[in-house]
Structures are given as structure tokens and as C-alpha cells.
Amino acid sequence: MPVSAPPKYKRILLKLSGEALMGEQNFGIDPAVTSAIALDIKEIIHLGVEVGIVIGGGNIFRGVAASAKGMDRATGDYMGMLATVINALAMQDALEHQDVACRVVSAVEMRAVAEPFIRRRAMRHMEKGRVVIFAAGTGNPYFTTDTAAALRAMEMKADVILKGTKVDGIYTADPMIDKKATRYEKISYLEVIEKSLKVMDATAITLCMDNNLPIIVFNLRSPGHLRRTIMGEPIGSIVS
């Protein structure tokens, strides 16, 4: 594809799981991983793409897992939201090391470390070419960061949600376990729900379906894949 071709998507919402930041560790944040992601984002910013990011917190704390062991679910979820803020600050630091202008906005107010989420202000940041990292999920317990990603994508009028994972798309089964698993190039929202494919949770998928917002699942670990996806190359799997 020629370099002069414009990006297929002008404004994107990148969804990163907390686990994506761990690298090969069992816990926490691998600075080498955040640096690699920041380099990929810098590349697409130079193409004129506006970027919003939603990060999970599963590498630090998972509310659902804690509630299964007896913790109050709402308390566990609020703790998970705070974990996403830690990840957002780490990602902000990595982006700023690449000279990429960046703002962390939080659904749970904590003015010392992040701006409060105000929709129009966040949109203005993106219009000015700043990366906006949406922290603390939706600010409500019982909602996942997948749902937060769908919600923020809708509010920011993003063209697409890009979900960066360890594998290169959506498979019929876990390709790490089942060697016969095949990859879907395209799949409908309803198929994802009916087949219980772990792309995003049902609330997020339904929200995207109701608003006709495509989701692309791709391998974030391959350098350059983010740019190629933005340019419209058939990488990963598309839910539409």
C-alpha cells in the first residue's frame, strides 16, 4: 500500500487489556511493552489519526476474581478501576517519552493525577492531536472496561474500536490450546454473542451492534500491525 494513501480510520479507540502490559511477567507492568505500544501509537499519530485508549486493570487487580473469593463485588470493581488508573499513568509516561502529547482522563475524580472525564474536553484534546487515555472504566461497578471502551468510542464518535490482543484475531477456539482452531476474517455481532466468543463482553458487543460500530481484533505484539490495521489492511478479525 503506498505511503501516500490516507488512513482508513481517522479516529480510533484502542482497547488494551491490563494483561497486555505485563509482557511475559505474571504481574504488573513491563516498561518494554508500554514503550513498544507507544512507538506504534506515535507512528499512527504521524498519519493524522486521532487516538483514544481504554486500558483494563487485570494485570494488577481483577474485581470479578476478588468477588468470587468473598469480597463485595462493588468494592472489588472500584479497586479494579484504580488499577486502570495506574496502567493509564504508565502508558502516559511511555507516550511522553516518545514526545507524544497525552492526557489521562478519569471517570472517578482524582484531580492530582488525572483530569475528570468531560466529554467535550476529551474530544477537544483528540482534535488537537493529543492521545486521550480513559481511566477508571465507566466509573460504575458491574461494568467492564470492554463496556467502557464501547461507551467512550460512541461518545468520542470513533470510527472503530481496535482491540489489541496476544493473537491475530478471533478464532473458533483458543488457538494456544486447540491447534485446529481457525480464524474468522469477518464475523457478525450476533455470531460473537451466540457462540460465546470471548471478544468483548455481551454488553459491549450489544452496544457496538446497536450503534453499528465495527470492532477489529488484532495482534498488538507484532510491530507495525497497528499502522497496517489503520490503513485498512486485512489484519486480524473484524466484527460488524
Q: Can you offer a commentary on this structure?
A:
- With 240 residues, the protein is an alpha/beta fold.
- It has a single domain (11-239), classed as Carbamate kinase, CATH 3.40.1160.10.
- 36% of the residues lie in helices and 18% in strands.
- It has helices at residues 31-45, 63-68, 73-97, 119-127, 145-155, 189-194, 202-210, 225-230, and strands at 11-16, 50-55, 102-106, 115-116, 131-135, 160-165, 170-171, 183-184, 186-187, 215-219, 237-239.
- The strands form two sheets. Strands 4-3-5-2-1-6-10-11-9 form a nine-stranded mixed β-sheet, with helices on both faces. It has a two-stranded antiparallel ribbon with strand order 7-8.
- The two termini are 24 Å apart.
- The model has no long low-confidence stretch (mean pLDDT 94).
The H-level CATH homologous superfamily, spelled out, is Acetylglutamate kinase-like
Q: Using DSSP, what is the number of strands?
A: 11
The N- to C-terminal Cα distance equals 24 Å
Order of helices and strands: EHEHHEEHEHEEEEHHEHE
CATH-derived architecture: 3-Layer(aba) Sandwich
CATH C-level category:
Alpha Beta
Low-confidence stretches: none
Figure out the total of helices: 8
Estimate the helix proportion, in percent.
Answer: 25-40%
Biggest sheet details: 9 strands, mixed
Read across the widest sheet, the strand sequence of neighbours is: 4-3-5-2-1-6-10-11-9
Count of individual domains: 1
Question: What structural category do the secondary elements indicate?
Answer: alpha/beta
Mean pLDDT: 94
Globally, the shape reads globular
Estimate what percentage of residues fall within beta strands: 15-25%
Radius of gyration (CA) equals 17 Å
